[in-house]
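User: These chains co-purify. Model them together.
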Amino acid sequence: MDLETLPQGYRLQPATYTFTRELVKAYLDAVQDRSPLYGKSALVPPMAVAALAMRAVLEGARLTPGTVHAAQDLEFASPVSVGEEVVCSVTVAQNSVRREWRFLVLEVSVNSSRGRSLMQGKTTLLVPQPATP
Amino acid sequence: MENNTRLPIIVKKVTQEQVHRYAAASADFNPIHVDPQFAAASSFGRPVAHGMLVLAFLSEMMTQAFGEAWLTTGKLKVRLKAPVFPEAIVETFGELRSEERQEKTRELRYAVGCRVQTGEEVIVGEARVTLSDTV
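Assistant: Joint model of the two components:
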C-alpha cells in the first residue's frame, strides 16, 4: 500500500501492539531516557506510545524514502503500562501537493483494548515529489 | 512543581549510532536517517536524526518537571523547523507562558523547544499540562 495515494478521510486498518519490557527497554536505551518514572512504575514513555503504535499501523505501508517529519501534535490521556496491549488507528486527514512537497497529515489515536482513550495525535509529513521538467 | 517558570534543561549529544538504535527500536528505517549514501543525495546532504527521537528529549523534560501528570494530561504541539544532524548537541527549553485556573486544577502553558549548539532552534511549539490543586 502506497500511503501517498490514499485519499483524505481514508482509515487504515487498526493494529494492536503490545509494549513488552524488551521493546520499552530498547526505546529507552535509544533515547537515553533514564527517568525513574519508567523504571519504578513500569510505565511506557508517552513518546514511545506515539512512535511505536503508529509504526504498527504503518507496517507494510510504503512511504517515499526521504520523507520528512514536519510537525507533531499529541495529547496524552492516560499512561500505558509495560505489557499492555493497545489498539492504534490512523486516518489520512490531509493529502495535498504544494510545490515540490506532498503534505500528508495523519491523525492517530491509541486506545486500550477496552476502548479507553490513551493518546491522540496528528503527524505532518513532507513527502518529496519528483522534479517536474 | 510549584515554581516551574522555567523547565529543566535536557542536554544530549545525538550520534549516528544512537540514530541506528532508534531506527531499530521504532522500526523506522527511512534511509534519510540511516543510509549515508541516500542522505548525501538528499537536500540535507547527510543523515538526519528522527524527529521523534529529538521530540523524546522534550518529553523527558516535561516528565522530569511534572512526572505522571505529563503522561495523563500532557499536550504537545510542535513544528520541526530544521534537521538535527548526528554529532549535534541538543538542548531543550521551556518557559511558562500562562496559567489558567479552574475550580480544582490549573493548566500551565509553556513555550517549548529544542536548540542545537549553534543556537538554532530546531523544534518550537507549545506544551500544556494540567495539575490538580491537591495541596
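Chain A has a mean pLDDT of 91.
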